[in-house]
C-alpha cells in the first residue's frame, strides 16, 4: 500500500512540476528559466526536481511534450482534419501569447538535431506526427472540394511545417510579424 501511495504522489508531483514549468517558461522564457527557479517554485531542491526527469534536457523535453498535448487538445481536437486550417491559425495566434514556450521550442528543436540529444526522439516523432496530421487534413479537404486537387498532401505537409517553424523564428526576432495572419494567407491561397 505504501509503495502505491508513493507512486501516486510521485505522479502528482511530476504533474505539478510540469504545470508550474509551463507557466514559468511561458512567462519568462527558456533562456531565463533555471532548474533552481523551477525547483523553488514546486518546493524541491534541484536534485529533487531532476529526480523526476533525470536531466535538465529531459525536463524541458517533458515540458514541450506537455505543451504539445495541451495545444493539440485545445486547438486541433477532436475535429482535427476538417478543422485543421482554422485550428492551426488559432494555435499560432495562441503561440504569440506564450513567447517563452515558442523560444523553448525553437531553441530546443535546434539543439536536438544531434541524435544523442535526449530530445532528439521527441522532435523526430513530433515532426512525423505533425506532417501526417497535416497531410491527412489536406487529403480530407481535397475530398471535400475545399483545396486544390493537384496539391500533394505529403509534400505540402513538409512545407507547412517549415513555414510554421520559420514564422516562429521570424516572430521571435520581430514581434510585428503576424504569424497567424501569414498562415491564414497561405490557406486562402490554396483554397478553391
Task: Determine the fraction of residues in helical runs and give it as a percent range.
Answer: over 70%
Tell me, rounded to a whole number, the average pLDDT: 89
* Percent of residues in β-strands: under 5%
Count of helical regions: 9
Helix/strand-derived category reads mainly alpha
Which spans have pLDDT < 50 for at least 5 consecutive residues? none
Radius of gyration, whole Å:
19 Å
Assembly state of the chains shown: single chain
| Cα-to-Cα separation, first versus last residue | 61 Å
Count all strands and give the number: 0
Order of helices and strands: HHHHHHHHH
| Sheet having the most strands | none
Q: Tell me, briefly, the overall form.
A: elongated
Task: Kindly list the characteristics that best describe this protein.
single chain; mainly alpha
Amino acid at each position: 500500500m505504501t509503495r502505491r501511495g508513493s507512486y501516486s504522489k510521485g505522479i502528482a508531483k511530476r504533474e505539478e512540476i510540469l504545470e508550474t514549468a509551463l507557466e514559468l517558461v511561458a512567462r519568462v522564457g527558456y533562456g531565463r528559466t533555471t532548474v533552481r527557479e523551477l525547483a523553488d517554485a514546486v518546493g524541491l531542491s534541484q536534485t529533487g526536481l531532476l529526480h523526476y526527469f533525470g536531466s535538465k534536457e529531459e525536463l524541458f523535453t517533458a515540458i514541450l511534450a506537455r505543451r504539445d498535448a495541451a495545444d493539440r487538445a485545445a486547438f486541433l481536437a477532436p475535429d482535427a482534419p476538417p478543422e485543421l486550417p482554422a485550428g492551426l491559425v488559432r494555435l499560432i495566434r495562441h503561440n504569440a501569447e506564450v513567447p517563452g514556450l515558442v523560444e523553448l521550442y525553437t531553441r530546443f528543436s535546434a539543439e536536438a538535431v544531434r541524435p544523442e540529444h535526449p530530445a532528439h526522439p521527441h522532435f523526430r516523432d513530433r515532426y512525423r506526427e505533425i506532417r501526417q496530421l497535416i497531410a491527412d487534413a489536406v487529403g480530407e479537404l481535397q475530398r471535400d472540394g475545399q483545396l486544390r486537387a493537384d496539391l500533394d498532401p505529403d509534400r505540402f505537409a513538409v512545407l507547412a511545417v517549415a513555414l510554421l517553424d520559420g514564422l516562429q523564428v521570424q516572430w521571435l526576432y520581430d514581434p510585428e510579424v503576424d504569424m497567424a495572419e501569414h498562415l491564414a494567407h497561405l490557406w486562402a491561397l490554396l483554397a478553391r
